[in-house]
Amino acid sequence: MALSNGTTWTSTLTCFTAAAEYKAGNFPAVFGHEAIREFAVKVIPYFDKVDHKVKSTWQKGDTLISEMDLVYHRKDGKVVTVPCVDIIQRRTGK
Question: What's the pLDDT tens digit per position in 31-52?
Fold first, then answer.
């Protein structure tokens, strides 16, 4: 599945450091490229598309916080919107 901007999870992983932490919803956090990829492989089949509707973004130093709505387009045709906050800490240029 492509992400809403047309990229794939494989290309998205290059944005993460090798030891990155990724946490989504009520799932436990996963660490590192392989664990993030494995998580995506399990979750992606449930959706046709996931859109990220950014509402606000703040940056202080190397920390970026983004408030958004995630719009899940499910395989059963239902569309579900949930609030989301991403906290991104940049390290080594990623």
Answer: 998 998 888 888 888 999 889 9
Q: With 0-12 CB in 10 A as exposed, 13-18 as middle and 19+ as buried, what is 64?
A: middle
User: Would you state the structure tokens that stand for residue 23, as one six-digit string?
Assistant: 């946490």
**Residues 32, 54: Cα–Cα separation, whole Å:** 25
- What sign for the dihedral angle of Cα 28, 33, 37, 43? positive
Residue 12 to residue 68: CA distance in whole angstroms: 18
Query: In this structure, which topology does domain 9-89 adopt according to CATH?
Result: Nuclear Transport Factor 2; Chain: A, (3.10.450)
Structural domain boundaries of the chain? 9-89
Give the pLDDT band of residue 4 (cuts 50, 70, 90): very low
CB 29 within 8 A of CB 23: yes
Return the amino acid letter for 31.
F
Residue among 46, 44, 20, 47 at smallest CA distance from 34:
20
